[in-house]
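Look over what follows to help learners.
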Amino acid sequence: MHVYTKTGDAGETSLYTGERVKKASMRVEVYGTIDEADSVFGLARAFAKNEDVKSAILDVQKRLPSLMADIASKGKEPLIQEKDIKELEKVMDAIEDELPKLTSFLIPGTTPGGAALDHARTVVRRAERFFCRLAEQEPVHDVDRRYLNRLSDYAFMLMRLEEA
């Protein structure tokens, strides 16, 4: 089987649930941006020196296909659950307890891993903005929006830990 299917040559793609949509649709924009964030998280994991940070990034990368599937599906129950959000919050709380209190804005780029995590944070923020636009047009799962919101905070906290 070839990697190319030619089914997208006319500017359409199939959602996970089978519907055909324009590649320019907001739904495709959202899950495409999450795919981009996954790549940046991978870059951050490759550069990270802190083993706890590497492990935390890998855990996120294992959840992102479920998030993309939620967005690429219509009329299905979400794969992302409240427990996924709670797990991000639990790790962030532990990191925050370990690090000194922030007293000023941070400038990205102290380490390659930290810079890549900050890049991931901004890509996730863009995905969240696109998700909000999609939510104005079509039904979406609120749990996915909240997960995206926490994920950008999570990337920020991992960046802080990596650069500590």
DSSP finds five helices and two strands in the chain.
